[in-house]
Protein backbone atom coordinates (compact mmCIF):
# COMPACT_ATOMS: atom_id res chain seq x y z
CA UNK A 1 0.00 0.00 0.00
CA UNK A 2 1.33 3.49 -0.82
CA UNK A 3 1.73 6.09 1.88
CA UNK A 4 -1.37 8.07 2.72
CA UNK A 5 -0.85 11.70 3.69
CA UNK A 6 -3.03 13.37 6.25
CA UNK A 7 -2.99 16.94 7.47
CA UNK A 8 -3.68 17.58 11.16
CA UNK A 9 -3.45 21.10 12.55
CA UNK A 10 -5.63 20.44 15.54
CA UNK A 11 -6.79 17.55 17.63
CA UNK A 12 -10.21 17.59 15.97
CA UNK A 13 -8.67 17.39 12.52
CA UNK A 14 -6.43 14.56 13.61
CA UNK A 15 -9.35 12.71 15.18
CA UNK A 16 -11.50 12.94 12.05
CA UNK A 17 -8.62 11.73 9.90
CA UNK A 18 -7.63 8.98 12.32
CA UNK A 19 -11.20 7.70 12.49
CA UNK A 20 -11.38 7.48 8.72
CA UNK A 21 -7.97 5.78 8.41
CA UNK A 22 -8.88 3.19 11.01
CA UNK A 23 -12.17 2.51 9.27
CA UNK A 24 -10.15 1.85 6.12
CA UNK A 25 -7.66 -0.35 8.01
CA UNK A 26 -4.63 1.83 7.19
CA UNK A 27 -1.78 0.86 9.56
CA UNK A 28 0.43 3.55 11.15
CA UNK A 29 3.40 2.65 8.95
CA UNK A 30 1.38 3.67 5.87
CA UNK A 31 0.42 7.15 7.05
CA UNK A 32 2.47 10.33 6.80
CA UNK A 33 1.13 13.07 9.03
CA UNK A 34 1.62 16.72 8.20
CA UNK A 35 1.23 19.60 10.65
CA UNK A 36 1.27 22.27 7.95
CA UNK A 37 -0.08 22.14 4.41
CA UNK A 38 2.77 21.14 2.13
CA UNK A 39 4.96 19.82 4.95
CA UNK A 40 6.92 16.68 4.85
CA UNK A 41 7.75 13.77 2.70
CA UNK A 42 8.43 14.48 -0.97
CA UNK A 43 7.83 10.86 -1.83
CA UNK A 44 4.43 10.51 -0.27
CA UNK A 45 1.24 10.28 -2.29
CA UNK A 46 -1.24 13.12 -2.74
CA UNK A 47 -3.55 13.53 0.24
CA UNK A 48 -6.91 11.79 -0.15
CA UNK A 49 -9.94 13.73 0.92
CA UNK A 50 -10.73 12.92 4.54
CA UNK A 51 -13.98 11.01 4.77
CA UNK A 52 -15.71 12.34 7.86
CA UNK A 53 -18.65 9.99 7.36
CA UNK A 54 -16.50 7.05 8.47
CA UNK A 55 -18.15 4.98 11.20
CA UNK A 56 -17.63 6.37 14.62
CA UNK A 57 -14.84 4.67 16.52
CA UNK A 58 -16.14 4.45 20.04
CA UNK A 59 -13.51 5.46 22.56
CA UNK A 60 -13.77 5.80 26.32
CA UNK A 61 -13.92 9.40 27.40
CA UNK A 62 -10.78 8.99 29.53
CA UNK A 63 -8.85 7.87 26.43
CA UNK A 64 -10.09 10.82 24.37
CA UNK A 65 -9.05 13.18 27.15
CA UNK A 66 -5.62 11.59 27.42
CA UNK A 67 -5.09 11.77 23.66
CA UNK A 68 -6.31 15.35 23.59
CA UNK A 69 -3.87 16.37 26.31
CA UNK A 70 -0.98 14.55 24.70
CA UNK A 71 -1.85 16.20 21.38
CA UNK A 72 -0.78 19.53 22.87
CA UNK A 73 2.74 18.22 23.43
CA UNK A 74 4.96 20.02 21.00
CA UNK A 75 6.91 17.34 19.17
CA UNK A 76 7.26 16.68 15.44
CA UNK A 77 5.76 13.17 15.44
CA UNK A 78 2.82 13.78 17.77
CA UNK A 79 0.08 12.90 15.27
CA UNK A 80 1.87 9.77 14.11
CA UNK A 81 2.44 8.70 17.67
CA UNK A 82 -1.19 9.26 18.67
CA UNK A 83 -2.31 7.31 15.64
CA UNK A 84 -0.01 4.47 16.66
CA UNK A 85 -1.65 4.46 20.13
CA UNK A 86 -5.13 4.51 18.65
CA UNK A 87 -4.29 1.79 16.17
CA UNK A 88 -3.04 -0.51 18.92
CA UNK A 89 -6.02 0.27 21.10
CA UNK A 90 -8.57 -0.67 18.44
CA UNK A 91 -6.66 -3.93 17.94
CA UNK A 92 -7.56 -4.61 21.58
CA UNK A 93 -4.00 -4.03 22.72
CA UNK A 94 -5.28 -2.06 25.69
CA UNK A 95 -1.92 -2.28 27.44
CA UNK A 96 -0.97 0.57 25.11
CA UNK A 97 -2.38 2.78 27.86
CA UNK A 98 -0.32 1.19 30.60
CA UNK A 99 2.64 3.15 31.95
CA UNK A 100 4.50 -0.18 31.78
CA UNK A 101 4.16 -0.16 27.97
CA UNK A 102 6.67 1.98 26.06
CA UNK A 103 3.95 3.80 24.09
CA UNK A 104 1.77 4.08 27.21
CA UNK A 105 4.64 5.55 29.21
CA UNK A 106 5.32 8.11 26.49
CA UNK A 107 1.64 9.01 26.22
CA UNK A 108 1.30 9.61 29.96
CA UNK A 109 4.55 11.58 30.08
CA UNK A 110 3.32 13.84 27.26
CA UNK A 111 -0.05 14.44 28.96
CA UNK A 112 1.70 15.16 32.25
CA UNK A 113 4.07 17.68 30.68
CA UNK A 114 1.10 19.42 29.08
CA UNK A 115 -0.79 19.63 32.38
CA UNK A 116 2.33 21.07 33.96
CA UNK A 117 2.63 23.66 31.22
CA UNK A 118 -1.02 24.64 31.66
CA UNK A 119 -0.41 25.06 35.35
CA UNK A 120 2.67 27.18 34.75
CA UNK A 121 0.85 29.34 32.27
CA UNK A 122 -2.02 29.92 34.72
CA UNK A 123 0.53 30.93 37.29
CA UNK A 124 2.90 33.04 35.23
CA UNK A 125 0.80 34.86 32.69
CA UNK A 126 0.86 38.55 33.61
CA UNK A 127 -1.67 40.87 32.07
CA UNK A 128 -0.69 44.48 31.52
CA UNK A 129 -3.42 47.04 31.31
CA UNK A 130 -3.21 49.10 28.13
CA UNK A 131 -4.25 52.67 27.59
CA UNK A 132 -7.79 52.90 26.27
CA UNK A 133 -8.03 52.41 22.51
CA UNK A 134 -11.20 51.81 20.56
CA UNK A 135 -11.72 48.10 19.97
CA UNK A 136 -8.41 47.07 21.53
CA UNK A 137 -8.35 44.60 24.40
CA UNK A 138 -7.92 46.19 27.78
CA UNK A 139 -5.34 43.73 29.07
CA UNK A 140 -2.54 42.10 27.14
CA UNK A 141 -0.15 39.35 28.15
CA UNK A 142 2.81 37.76 26.46
CA UNK A 143 3.81 34.17 27.17
CA UNK A 144 6.11 31.61 25.57
CA UNK A 145 4.60 28.19 26.25
CA UNK A 146 6.63 25.10 25.51
CA UNK A 147 3.52 23.17 24.47
CA UNK A 148 0.32 24.14 22.65
CA UNK A 149 -1.76 24.97 25.67
CA UNK A 150 -2.97 28.44 24.69
CA UNK A 151 -6.63 27.52 23.90
CA UNK A 152 -7.35 25.78 27.19
CA UNK A 153 -5.47 28.40 29.20
CA UNK A 154 -7.46 31.10 27.41
CA UNK A 155 -10.69 29.32 28.40
CA UNK A 156 -9.45 29.32 32.00
CA UNK A 157 -8.87 33.09 31.95
CA UNK A 158 -12.17 33.70 30.16
CA UNK A 159 -13.94 32.05 33.09
CA UNK A 160 -11.99 34.10 35.61
CA UNK A 161 -11.82 37.58 34.15
CA UNK A 162 -15.46 38.31 33.54
CA UNK A 163 -16.23 40.91 30.93
CA UNK A 164 -12.86 42.68 30.84
CA UNK A 165 -11.37 42.22 27.36
CA UNK A 166 -7.88 40.79 27.00
CA UNK A 167 -5.48 39.13 24.65
CA UNK A 168 -2.79 36.55 25.31
CA UNK A 169 -0.09 36.55 22.67
CA UNK A 170 2.42 33.76 22.16
CA UNK A 171 5.09 33.26 19.49
CA UNK A 172 2.75 30.89 17.60
CA UNK A 173 -0.74 32.29 18.07
CA UNK A 174 -2.93 34.63 20.03
CA UNK A 175 -6.27 34.41 21.78
CA UNK A 176 -8.58 37.34 22.25
CA UNK A 177 -11.44 37.58 24.73
CA UNK A 178 -13.82 40.40 23.84
CA UNK A 179 -15.76 40.10 27.06
CA UNK A 180 -18.16 37.48 25.76
CA UNK A 181 -16.41 35.34 23.14
CA UNK A 182 -12.97 33.85 22.61
CA UNK A 183 -11.30 34.38 19.23
CA UNK A 184 -8.24 32.49 18.04
CA UNK A 185 -5.78 34.56 16.06
CA UNK A 186 -2.32 34.41 14.53
CA UNK A 187 0.93 35.41 16.22
CA UNK A 188 0.79 39.20 16.53
CA UNK A 189 3.65 40.29 18.71
CA UNK A 190 7.27 39.35 18.83
CA UNK A 191 7.82 39.65 22.55
CA UNK A 192 6.86 41.13 25.87
CA UNK A 193 8.48 44.44 24.97
CA UNK A 194 5.78 45.05 22.35
CA UNK A 195 3.16 45.27 25.02
CA UNK A 196 2.14 48.66 26.26
CA UNK A 197 3.02 48.35 29.91
CA UNK A 198 0.84 51.03 31.43
CA UNK A 199 -0.55 48.43 33.81
CA UNK A 200 2.78 47.16 34.96
CA UNK A 201 3.07 49.66 37.77
CA UNK A 202 -0.24 48.42 39.11
CA UNK A 203 0.92 44.84 39.10
CA UNK A 204 4.21 45.70 40.76
CA UNK A 205 2.43 47.68 43.46
CA UNK A 206 0.20 44.72 44.07
CA UNK A 207 3.07 42.25 44.03
CA UNK A 208 5.00 44.33 46.54
CA UNK A 209 1.92 44.56 48.68
CA UNK A 210 1.28 40.83 48.87
CA UNK A 211 4.92 39.92 49.25
CA UNK A 212 5.23 38.60 52.76
CA UNK A 213 8.82 38.53 53.97
CA UNK A 214 7.75 36.24 56.82
CA UNK A 215 6.60 33.61 54.32
CA UNK A 216 9.20 33.89 51.68
CA UNK A 217 11.68 31.13 51.09
CA UNK A 218 14.16 32.37 48.52
CA UNK A 219 15.41 28.90 47.54
CA UNK A 220 11.89 27.62 47.08
CA UNK A 221 10.90 30.68 45.09
CA UNK A 222 13.79 30.15 42.69
CA UNK A 223 13.17 26.44 42.37
CA UNK A 224 9.42 26.83 41.84
CA UNK A 225 9.56 29.56 39.23
CA UNK A 226 11.81 28.16 36.52
CA UNK A 227 14.23 30.76 35.21
CA UNK A 228 12.67 30.68 31.71
CA UNK A 229 9.62 32.49 33.17
CA UNK A 230 11.49 35.21 35.04
CA UNK A 231 12.37 37.32 32.04
CA UNK A 232 8.70 37.85 31.19
CA UNK A 233 7.58 38.40 34.76
CA UNK A 234 7.52 42.07 35.66
CA UNK A 235 8.18 41.21 39.28
CA UNK A 236 11.38 39.47 38.20
CA UNK A 237 13.07 42.84 38.44
CA UNK A 238 11.95 43.65 41.97
CA UNK A 239 12.14 40.26 43.66
CA UNK A 240 15.89 40.41 44.45
CA UNK A 241 15.45 43.70 46.35
CA UNK A 242 12.48 42.32 48.24
CA UNK A 243 14.34 39.16 49.14
CA UNK A 244 17.17 41.15 50.57
CA UNK A 245 14.61 43.23 52.51
CA UNK A 246 13.21 40.01 53.91
CA UNK A 247 16.68 38.84 54.84
CA UNK A 248 17.16 42.12 56.66
CA UNK A 249 14.27 41.36 58.98
CA UNK A 250 11.18 42.97 57.43
CA UNK A 251 8.25 40.94 58.62
CA UNK A 252 4.91 42.56 57.98
CA UNK A 253 3.33 42.35 54.60
CA UNK A 254 3.33 45.64 52.83
CA UNK A 255 -0.38 45.43 51.99
CA UNK A 256 -1.05 49.06 51.33
CA UNK A 257 -4.07 51.20 50.96
CA UNK A 258 -2.68 52.41 47.66
CA UNK A 259 -3.59 49.14 45.93
CA UNK A 260 -7.20 49.35 47.00
CA UNK A 261 -7.45 52.97 45.97
CA UNK A 262 -6.54 52.32 42.39
CA UNK A 263 -9.57 52.56 40.20
CA UNK A 264 -10.89 50.25 37.55
CA UNK A 265 -11.03 46.50 37.12
CA UNK A 266 -7.72 44.74 37.48
CA UNK A 267 -6.43 41.25 37.11
CA UNK A 268 -5.91 41.04 40.84
CA UNK A 269 -7.77 37.98 42.12
CA UNK A 270 -8.16 39.26 45.69
CA UNK A 271 -9.10 42.86 46.21
CA UNK A 272 -6.82 44.87 48.44
CA UNK A 273 -9.73 45.52 50.78
CA UNK A 274 -10.14 41.81 51.28
CA UNK A 275 -6.44 41.18 51.46
CA UNK A 276 -6.10 43.59 54.35
CA UNK A 277 -9.18 45.15 55.87
CA UNK A 278 -8.58 48.75 56.78
CA UNK A 279 -7.62 49.19 60.39
CA UNK A 280 -7.20 52.71 61.57
CA UNK A 281 -4.73 51.76 64.24
CA UNK A 282 -3.11 48.45 64.97
CA UNK A 283 -5.24 46.82 67.61
CA UNK A 284 -3.70 45.49 70.76
CA UNK A 285 -4.44 42.06 69.34
CA UNK A 286 -2.10 42.87 66.44
CA UNK A 287 0.62 43.51 68.96
CA UNK A 288 0.02 40.32 70.93
CA UNK A 289 3.23 38.49 71.82
CA UNK A 290 1.78 36.08 74.38
CA UNK A 291 3.01 33.13 72.35
CA UNK A 292 5.33 32.73 69.37
CA UNK A 293 2.68 32.27 66.67
CA UNK A 294 2.68 35.96 65.65
CA UNK A 295 6.15 35.58 64.20
CA UNK A 296 5.04 33.62 61.16
CA UNK A 297 1.51 34.91 60.71
CA UNK A 298 0.59 37.79 58.44
CA UNK A 299 -1.66 39.30 61.04
CA UNK A 300 -3.89 38.46 64.00
CA UNK A 301 -7.45 37.60 63.00
CA UNK A 302 -10.06 38.97 65.39
CA UNK A 303 -13.66 37.82 65.59
CA UNK A 304 -16.32 39.37 63.38
CA UNK A 305 -20.05 39.86 63.74
CA UNK A 306 -22.69 41.93 65.52
CA UNK A 307 -21.28 43.27 68.78
CA UNK A 308 -24.25 41.87 70.73
CA UNK A 309 -24.89 38.62 68.86
CA UNK A 310 -26.84 35.97 70.76
CA UNK A 311 -24.81 33.17 69.27
CA UNK A 312 -21.03 32.99 69.04
CA UNK A 313 -19.28 30.37 66.92
CA UNK A 314 -15.72 29.60 67.95
CA UNK A 315 -13.34 27.90 65.54
CA UNK A 316 -9.80 26.74 66.07
CA UNK A 317 -7.50 29.27 64.41
CA UNK A 318 -7.37 31.21 61.15
CA UNK A 319 -6.33 29.22 58.09
CA UNK A 320 -4.17 30.32 55.17
CA UNK A 321 -6.83 32.50 53.58
CA UNK A 322 -8.06 33.97 56.85
CA UNK A 323 -4.47 34.90 57.69
CA UNK A 324 -4.22 36.87 54.46
CA UNK A 325 -7.69 38.39 54.62
CA UNK A 326 -7.68 39.22 58.34
CA UNK A 327 -11.19 37.76 58.66
CA UNK A 328 -12.41 34.49 60.16
CA UNK A 329 -13.81 31.66 58.07
CA UNK A 330 -13.35 32.99 54.56
CA UNK A 331 -11.53 29.91 53.17
CA UNK A 332 -12.73 26.37 52.36
CA UNK A 333 -13.79 25.62 55.96
CA UNK A 334 -15.74 28.88 55.89
CA UNK A 335 -17.51 27.83 52.69
CA UNK A 336 -18.60 24.60 54.30
CA UNK A 337 -19.67 26.43 57.41
CA UNK A 338 -21.74 28.81 55.27
CA UNK A 339 -23.50 25.87 53.71
CA UNK A 340 -24.27 24.37 57.13
CA UNK A 341 -25.49 27.75 58.40
CA UNK A 342 -27.84 28.06 55.45
CA UNK A 343 -29.15 24.56 55.98
CA UNK A 344 -29.71 25.23 59.68
CA UNK A 345 -31.49 28.51 58.90
CA UNK A 346 -28.92 30.62 60.76
CA UNK A 347 -27.91 33.88 59.07
CA UNK A 348 -24.15 34.39 59.08
CA UNK A 349 -24.56 38.10 59.69
CA UNK A 350 -26.55 37.41 62.86
CA UNK A 351 -23.76 35.52 64.62
CA UNK A 352 -20.37 36.39 65.98
CA UNK A 353 -17.60 34.26 64.47
CA UNK A 354 -14.23 33.93 66.08
CA UNK A 355 -11.40 31.54 66.83
CA UNK A 356 -9.81 30.13 69.97
CA UNK A 357 -6.37 31.08 68.64
CA UNK A 358 -5.99 34.30 66.70
CA UNK A 359 -2.79 33.70 64.74
CA UNK A 360 -2.35 31.14 61.97
CA UNK A 361 -0.06 28.28 62.97
CA UNK A 362 1.43 26.52 59.96
CA UNK A 363 4.33 24.59 58.58
CA UNK A 364 5.73 24.84 55.05
CA UNK A 365 4.96 22.01 52.63
CA UNK A 366 6.24 22.80 49.16
CA UNK A 367 4.68 26.08 48.16
CA UNK A 368 1.86 25.72 50.65
CA UNK A 369 1.40 26.66 54.27
CA UNK A 370 -0.11 23.66 55.98
CA UNK A 371 -2.28 24.13 59.04
CA UNK A 372 -0.79 22.87 62.29
CA UNK A 373 -2.96 22.26 65.35
CA UNK A 374 -2.19 24.75 68.10
CA UNK A 375 -0.57 23.43 71.26
CA UNK A 376 -2.35 23.69 74.59
CA UNK A 377 0.05 26.45 75.69
CA UNK A 378 -0.95 28.49 72.64
CA UNK A 379 -4.65 27.92 73.32
CA UNK A 380 -4.10 29.09 76.89
CA UNK A 381 -2.01 32.09 75.82
CA UNK A 382 -4.81 33.19 73.51
CA UNK A 383 -7.66 32.50 75.89
CA UNK A 384 -7.67 36.07 77.22
CA UNK A 385 -8.70 37.36 73.80
CA UNK A 386 -11.63 34.98 73.63
CA UNK A 387 -12.60 35.94 77.16
CA UNK A 388 -12.62 39.60 76.11
CA UNK A 389 -14.93 38.82 73.20
CA UNK A 390 -17.24 36.80 75.44
CA UNK A 391 -17.38 39.63 77.94
CA UNK A 392 -18.21 42.24 75.36
CA UNK A 393 -20.57 40.27 73.08
CA UNK A 394 -22.30 38.37 75.90
CA UNK A 395 -23.65 35.55 73.72
CA UNK A 396 -26.27 33.27 75.20
CA UNK A 397 -25.01 30.30 73.23
CA UNK A 398 -21.48 29.37 72.19
CA UNK A 399 -20.95 26.81 69.47
CA UNK A 400 -17.56 25.12 69.77
CA UNK A 401 -16.38 24.08 66.33
CA UNK A 402 -14.03 21.24 67.17
CA UNK A 403 -11.95 20.30 70.14
CA UNK A 404 -9.49 23.23 70.26
CA UNK A 405 -12.45 25.58 70.62
CA UNK A 406 -14.06 23.34 73.23
CA UNK A 407 -10.85 23.18 75.28
CA UNK A 408 -10.54 26.94 75.25
CA UNK A 409 -14.20 27.61 76.05
CA UNK A 410 -14.29 25.14 78.93
CA UNK A 411 -10.71 26.01 79.92
CA UNK A 412 -10.07 22.33 80.14
CA UNK A 413 -7.16 20.91 78.17
CA UNK A 414 -8.64 17.41 78.50
CA UNK A 415 -12.13 18.29 77.27
CA UNK A 416 -13.42 15.79 74.74
CA UNK A 417 -15.96 16.33 72.00
CA UNK A 418 -17.59 12.91 71.94
CA UNK A 419 -19.73 13.11 75.09
CA UNK A 420 -20.94 16.58 74.18
CA UNK A 421 -22.02 15.96 70.60
CA UNK A 422 -25.80 16.38 70.60
CA UNK A 423 -25.82 17.30 74.29
CA UNK A 424 -25.44 21.01 75.01
CA UNK A 425 -24.14 21.93 78.46
CA UNK A 426 -24.32 25.03 80.59
CA UNK A 427 -20.98 26.61 81.36
CA UNK A 428 -20.38 29.95 83.06
CA UNK A 429 -24.01 30.91 82.58
CA UNK A 430 -24.13 30.13 78.85
CA UNK A 431 -25.06 27.21 76.66
CA UNK A 432 -22.18 25.45 75.01
CA UNK A 433 -22.97 23.35 71.95
CA UNK A 434 -20.16 21.15 70.61
CA UNK A 435 -20.02 20.18 66.93
CA UNK A 436 -17.28 19.01 64.60
CA UNK A 437 -15.01 21.52 62.96
CA UNK A 438 -15.88 22.10 59.27
CA UNK A 439 -12.34 20.99 58.31
CA UNK A 440 -13.07 17.65 59.94
CA UNK A 441 -15.86 17.22 57.40
CA UNK A 442 -13.56 18.25 54.55
CA UNK A 443 -10.96 15.72 55.65
CA UNK A 444 -13.38 12.82 56.24
CA UNK A 445 -12.24 9.77 54.28
CA UNK A 446 -15.47 8.95 52.47
CA UNK A 447 -18.82 10.41 51.51
CA UNK A 448 -20.75 8.62 54.27
CA UNK A 449 -18.56 9.91 57.09
CA UNK A 450 -18.50 13.35 55.51
CA UNK A 451 -22.28 13.44 55.46
CA UNK A 452 -22.50 12.16 59.03
CA UNK A 453 -20.06 14.78 60.38
CA UNK A 454 -21.78 17.51 58.40
CA UNK A 455 -25.18 16.52 59.81
CA UNK A 456 -23.74 16.86 63.32
CA UNK A 457 -22.77 20.45 62.54
CA UNK A 458 -26.17 21.31 61.08
CA UNK A 459 -28.00 19.68 64.01
CA UNK A 460 -25.79 21.56 66.51
CA UNK A 461 -26.46 24.86 64.77
CA UNK A 462 -30.20 24.21 64.86
CA UNK A 463 -29.92 23.39 68.54
CA UNK A 464 -28.01 26.62 69.13
CA UNK A 465 -30.75 28.58 67.34
CA UNK A 466 -33.39 27.13 69.62
CA UNK A 467 -31.31 27.75 72.73
CA UNK A 468 -30.51 31.28 71.60
CA UNK A 469 -34.12 32.21 70.90
CA UNK A 470 -34.82 32.49 74.58
CA UNK A 471 -32.00 32.65 77.07
CA UNK A 472 -34.40 31.66 79.84
CA UNK A 473 -35.80 28.90 77.84
CA UNK A 474 -35.13 25.67 79.63
CA UNK A 475 -34.75 23.11 76.91
CA UNK A 476 -37.00 20.08 76.71
CA UNK A 477 -35.40 18.55 79.84
CA UNK A 478 -36.82 21.58 81.64
CA UNK A 479 -34.42 21.67 84.57
CA UNK A 480 -32.68 24.70 86.09
CA UNK A 481 -29.27 25.58 84.74
CA UNK A 482 -26.33 25.44 87.13
CA UNK A 483 -22.84 25.80 85.69
CA UNK A 484 -21.73 22.96 83.41
CA UNK A 485 -25.09 21.24 83.48
CA UNK A 486 -26.25 19.16 80.55
CA UNK A 487 -29.49 19.96 78.78
N1 LIG B 1 -10.63 27.26 60.56
C1 LIG B 1 -10.90 27.87 61.73
O1 LIG B 1 -10.96 27.24 62.77
N2 LIG B 1 -11.12 29.16 61.72
C2 LIG B 1 -11.09 29.89 60.64
O2 LIG B 1 -11.28 31.10 60.72
C3 LIG B 1 -10.82 29.24 59.43
C4 LIG B 1 -10.59 27.92 59.39
Describe the protein.
This is Type-4 uracil-DNA glycosylase. Keywords: 4Fe-4S, DNA damage, DNA repair, Hydrolase, Iron, Iron-sulfur, Metal-binding. The structure is a single chain. The chain has 487 residues and is α/β, with parallel strands linked by helices. The chain has 17 helices and 14 strands. The chain has helices spanning 11-23, 61-70, 78-90, 102-124, 150-160, 200-210, 218-224, 227-230, 239-247, 257-261, 272-275, 320-325, 332-344, 376-393, 403-410, 438-443, 447-469; strands spanning 4-7, 31-34, 128-129, 139-142, 166-169, 173-177, 182-186, 311-315, 352-355, 362-365, 368-371, 397-401, 425-427, 430-435. A 5-stranded mixed sheet has the order 3-4-5-6-7, covered by helices on one side. Strand 10 (362-365) and strand 11 (368-371) form a beta hairpin. Helix 2 (61-70) packs across helix 4 (102-124), helix 13 (332-344) packs across helix 17 (447-469) and helix 14 crosses helix 15. The longest helix is centred in the first third of the chain and has 23 residues, at 102-124. Residues 40-47, 250-282 and 472-485 have low confidence and may be disordered. Residues 315-319, 322, 328-329, 331, 333-334, 355, 439 line the site of uracil.
